[in-house]
Amino acid sequence: MLYYLSQWMLEATNDPEWVDRLSVLRVFRYITVRSAGAAITALFLSLWLGPKVIRWLKKVKFGQDYDDKAQVAGTKEVEVFSKRGTPTMGGILIVAVVDLSALLWCQWNELVMLTLISLLVLAALGFYDDYKKITEQSSAGAKANVKLWVQAVLAVFIGVYLWRSPETKELVTSVMVPFVKHPVLTGAPLAGLVITAGAIVGSSNAVNFTDGLDGLAIGCTLIVTLVFLVFTYIAGNVIYAGYLQVPHVPGAGELTVFCAAILGSGLGFLWFNCHPAQVFMGDTGSLALGGVLGIIAVLIHQPFVLVIAGGVFVAEGMSVVIQTSWFKYTRKRFGEGRRVFRMAPLHHHFQKLGWYESQIVARFYILCILCAVAALATMKLR
Description:
Helix 3 (31-59) runs antiparallel to helix 6. The chain has helices at 2-12, 16-21, 31-59, 69-73, 77-80, 91-105, 110-136, 144-164, 170-173, 189-210, 216-235, 238-244, 254-273, 282-299, 303-309, 311-334, 346-352, 357-377. It contains 18 helices and no strands.
């Protein structure tokens, strides 16, 4: 919005004196300036609105009055910092601030609009899941197949939309992998649709699994988002993309502004979500943020880079898959379910080993940073 307003003001004036005075508005043409503006706007909005949203969530009793997995798995630390009564659905704050900041600072195109719409759809799905948990005072929430169906339908819609559009068709019909300059597969829309759906659905659920300790999911999300802020900027710049031999996607630079909005909003939310948390993002935030990371990876033709950058998310998600599959197999084979981990997702396994919550979060941050460095290295090692 600010971009279009600034350009209208520049084009509307014919007075030479005013043309000179308004020349400063040309800075809105630069993605770097608008990205900085989006990040700062989102940060201050989050810090300003955070206490108000927390008070409102408490007022409407959108809080957690049951023991979640973190409390069940935790050490004596939970006796000091009980999570009971802490408001959830804090993802409302994140999504609202990201949407507002992106609309203010982005130059709108179909990539940005797809991302914004997806963020809202997944946030609505997460809100429904959180609402079920609150009304039933149970960690069960919505049925898993309901969430998977909604995520899958959204992912297929995005894949088909990209495939049917001449400008974005190649994002689905060709397959890029890290460390390789050229597509490893071309003219393969079916494979592209499967990869697109896998990236979006997998990322959405993996971040959701990671959201179990104070500050863990949002902190790791910020680190991965920073990686994609770099990738989107390079993908949208034909010179940099050509030099680094990564796919150039026209319009992808505006996703840099979107990533900056996530960074600002996420930092502001982390202020209230760090241990001991004043608010939880809930599925409203985790499903939406995870899905959006997957969508951005698809839109810049780098879905497999997300696997590297989001290595912590992958580990968390795989721990759940391995634990569930092995338990079901051993129960069928031996009549008694057996476990690989003491508890899943993975962060609860370390809680069972006696690690403190803050230890787990800090060490997972370190691992996530290492994964982020590895992901950025794929741009040069080709």
